[in-house]
TrEMBL record:
The Aminopeptidase N-like N-terminal domain, residue ranges: 93-190
Domain Peptidase M1 membrane alanine aminopeptidase: 230-447
Protein name from the UniProt record: Aminopeptidase N
Enzyme class: hydrolase
Domain Peptidase M1 alanyl aminopeptidase Ig-like fold: from-to ranges: 452-556
GO BP terms, alphabetized: proteolysis
Molecular function terms, GO-annotated: alanyl aminopeptidase activity; metallopeptidase activity; zinc ion binding
Amino acid sequence: MRTDTSPAIYRKDYTPPSYWVRTVQMGFDLDPAATRVATRMTLERNPAGREQALVLFGEELELVQIRLNGKALSRRDYALKDGVLRIPVKLDQITLEIETLIRPDKNTSLMGLYVSNGNFFTQCEAEGFRKITYFPDRPDVMAQYTVMLRADKKAYPVLLSNGNLVEEGDLGDGRHYALWEDPFKKPSYLFALVAGQLVCQEEKIKLQSGREALLQVWVEDGNLDKTQHAMDSLINSIRWDERRFGLELDLDRFMIVAVGDFNMGAMENKGLNIFNTKYVLANPRIATDVDYANIEAVVGHEYFHNWTGNRVTCRDWFQLSLKEGLTVFRDQEFSADMVGTDSGRAVKRIDDVRVLRQAQFPEDAGPMAHPVRPDSFVEISNFYTVTIYEKGAEVVRMYQTLLGRDGFRKGMDLYFKRHDGQAVECDDFRAAMSAANGRDLTQFERWYSQAGTPHVKAKTSYDPVQKTYDITLSQFCAPTPGQDRKQSFHIPVALGLLDSSGKDMTLKLDGEVVAINTVVLELTSAQQTFRFTDVSEYPVPSMLRNFSAPVVLEYDYSEEELAFLMAHDSDAFNRWEAGQRLATRRLLALTAAVQKSDALTIDPALSDSLRATLNDTQLDPAFRETVLTLPAETVVAEQMDVIDPQAIHTARRFLRQSLAQALQSDFVRAYQSSQTDGPYSPDAGSSGKRALKNLALSYIAELDDDYAHTLAQAQYDAADNMTDRMASLSALVNSQAPGKAAALARFYSDFEQEPLVIDKWFSLQAMARTADVAVVRTLMQHPAFSIKNPNRARSLIFSFCNGNPSRFHAADGSGYVFWAEQVIALDAINPQMGARLARSLDRWRKYAPALQEKMHAALKHVAAAKLSKDTKEVVTKSLAAT
């Protein structure tokens, strides 16, 4: 584990490598306790390089020998300090051979080469390859790899690496080998190796060119019956990319491998994607509808990286969103297209925006705020963030909003034509979009270079005599760390106007018809006014349709206007948004009342609007479920100057109970009418029905009476799928039902051999209303809990700290003491996990003084420990926040 206090690395200090690596040949003699790695690379001097020496990086390696052009180097021939190996050399062409010894079974960081359940796996992004051998481990150094794997055949019958299998055979003495060759040059972060006891499902498909490709999904024995959905998702991803972007799978073989110990969701290694089991394994017994959707999205995401990330990669890690933001956008579009209906697309869009508002907007307002293309970092692992991914996807989406779908495709085509096989920058993508469409996108660069969430304020006026309607838009972005003043962004604001009957008006800007229902206004200055003409009556504006930019819209809608939009807006996203605004206003008012000990009351206008939506059978069930889901406590918290977790929780619970009481018969009717017949299917229609049914159950359960208990227990007993089983168990666990302890015990007994299901069991208890630190500490002593497994740690520790705000932020500070202990413990095992948990307190200054004091003490306690630079960076920035 690194405990250095390395200074920040700055984007402006980028220098090209002194040497390009052209070919890499690697030989692995695999042994858990001592794996030998022999690497032979050919290098060519880079005329643009400034460093005279050859510079390589390594971590936790035992250096056995180095040979330069066949000559063994002694210790005086090179310098090795702090993981940086410098070899003075003046030749233009060199061959370098390095032998290292590594210990995979001791590698708890799960970076580089490690062992999980007796099998070998790798994770090299961002800088894990340097834990395998000394190498110029940076994304702009791309080479062709040939890899020889040797291992005991009985213990490790399956040997996989990137690219195509060239040769395999026996070595004698019970050992065997496999030789893999990747025909495409790649950076070292895309290197992958898997070896062990695995089985696979495979299918052959014909690509659009007529070429045949072999697809394989590798899992541990016993899990083969859980791979069909992942395989279907892979095939759908391949077909979608062919249709939507004209991009074809470029290898003869594409492999997915599932592993239970993994820091991330998945990794796009060229031709050999390594996945967390959470995003591969599914059948009706163990996976919920959400799991099925997530698997489809993540399989798509990693496959789409084959072009947006692998064929065209990042020049440096500051450009991370070049591949991640673009690929998240692609997987979002893929998932929406797979649903296939307008309402389904809207629900997908709403889900994506929820993630942005609940996670990215707070990040933009905290001490870890950074631009989509950061200017500096201490540890790159800390920048795999919702800003890079989700906000980055919104930036890419804005290109499509501004240029249109066809214009965006033209930009993508030019991007690949210009940069296939290269390591490039975010500016290169923007330049391709600009050139392909003849648009000046210079100002758009600020979305990459400026942190923070812009606020767009709208004011309107109507002249009944002139029949004109003016909309004045202004923008402001608050200071963020290192950026006190912001320049104006280029913001697309999609807008429609509704007449008194709820119909979209034809839109004329200064006398010219610009749209039948929606126009994209481009806000590029601090303030601009747009005049619509021939507006026959006072309209209701529908602004920021489909959430056309990642901003906070400030407009003083009346409650009557919001109810009108909720009932009539043709833009499904804004129908949902109107309901969220109504609910958020009510939650903020209730929170204030709780703080003042005033009587709590419910607004009939809100309950009437929600009742109308719930009972509107013309609306898709999934959309109705989405509208009836109240804003999360974290979303409400973002609207407050000083966060009061207990008051927010009390207010939201009161509103849910009040709605449950007011709409009781409606929820019962919705529950009964949303049953699904026949065998379980995760298709959008069936999933939507289950979502509405289980939302209704959750509201009915708020009443905590005998009927609710009986209904939840009956559903649990009859459930033939994990979606219904988890929903009913949640209803029981968050109630006073006499059978909840027995249900939890039964659930564990039924699924004890299914790790992903036991993760759900831990998570459900960690986020229960009655859970406190004592409950979580007791669960940590359960035989099934292991802090070393990232999924298990996330299911319990992270679920409590990040998913149960009222209990985590207990007034006595016990949650913070627990948090500090776990951050230190995780950091010693796995720095990435420690740093991610450390983020739970990075916005401590937003809370009331009494909580601030206890959070500050916990942060100081962690800061005093011996930390990796991953966690140290987060804690240091959090303490320095003002």
